[in-house]
Design a protein that fits this description.
Shape: elongated
Number of strands: 11
CATH superfamily of the largest domain: Periplasmic binding protein-like II
CATH topology of the largest domain: D-Maltodextrin-Binding Protein, domain 2
Largest sheet: 9 strands, mixed
Order of helices and strands: HHHEEHEHEHEEHEHEHEHEEH
Oligomer: single chain
Number of helices: 11
Length: 294
Amino acid sequence: MLDELKAFVLLAETGSVQRVAERLLLTQPAVTRQVQRLERMLDATLLDRRAKPATFTRAGVVALERARAILASVDELKQVLASDAEPAGQLRLGVAHTLATAELAEAVESLRQHYPNLALQLVSGWTPELAAKVEQGTLDAAILLSAGDAGSLAEPAGRIVGTEDVLIIAPKALRVPKRATLAALADHGWILMPDETCGARRALRTAIERQGGQFLIAAEVHDIELQISLVSKGLGVGIMPRRKLTAGLKQKLQIVDVGDPQLRLSVFVKRAKYLSGINRGIDFLEEELIRIMK
């Protein structure tokens, strides 16, 4: 019955027989048969198939809640019984674009050496799309980023492995005062990630427009190192995590105190449900990230 329960729960979470089939490596008819078999086992109609797409009946809603509890209990039991077993198999890991750096490679290499039977499949993307893939079960876990105004930064939906200030930077040649308004900086254009969902970018834009300035983009670049390099060469102003500020960059960049907003970022790990044996591998990766980001 566990296979049928899992297919039923995944159908509720993904809303698509096709996605369930992809997740379970089955055909769509096989998934349909599993749900039908569960209905026969429970002697209840769980789906109202007159609606397109099908909706859950009252019995289906009750069954869904109990099915989730049963699967969670089974998963917990597996973890207890396998606590001494080495993680093995595939770990599908998402990484937010901004975090795809050499520092992450260090954590991934440590994981590979510690658990050689764990096969990593890495996928980079924007935080919202990766979080959705974890929810859908097409990724096992993701290392994600939440950034924005420190005063209103939402609590991430996962374990936080690091937090730090985000600095506003300008080239030394620009001779910007150490304390300046965002509106005064805006004339020079911003060099930022091409991500409209970025909380830091939204906070900057809101503050600039509130101060009567115009939010101008000089360049949109995925790679954080390239962003910093372009700023240092005078192509615009930008933002960077404090840990990126090396002694060499201090000779080329100036940090600008704009007062408000105070930008901050959190790095967190979000996991899918029902991971069983690979959870220890993710635990290890989280600890490595915490160590690196101290």
